[in-house]
Amino acid sequence: MIPQALRTxxxxxxxxxxxxxxxxxxxxxxxxxxxxxxxxxVSDAEATIASILETITTQFxxxxxxxxxxxxxxxxxxxxxxxFAGSHISGGGRYELFVHELAADDAVDPVEYGRMLVEACxxxxxxxxxxxxxxxxxxxxxxxVSR
Length: 147
Description:
This protein is α/β, with parallel strands linked by helices.
């Protein structure tokens, strides 16, 4: 954790030992936290959507943005997912969750639509067909920042 005095650029005498040399201010340090986006495409996942979203949103490293794309669902999948929508803060960080509904006969490919929504993110985790790989976004994040 960087002391407040270093973050604001004020004098460092009160936070550093007298013989310490401060080589860089926080504003000059790179941001080591990559932005992570998650695309979750589902259909007729009423029985599992809540547990999937709970798993994603309670990880050590929560994606910055999560887009749930419900395609042609005939059950309550979208309604359940919408209960998770909005801006949140958890132990794994701050995130926003959005729910998008596409009709079954829509010409839009849900995967391509999701990729368009997260194109500004540095790391993208895609979860499709109601299958959840445990800790997928967290694992992708760790792989990206370890390079």
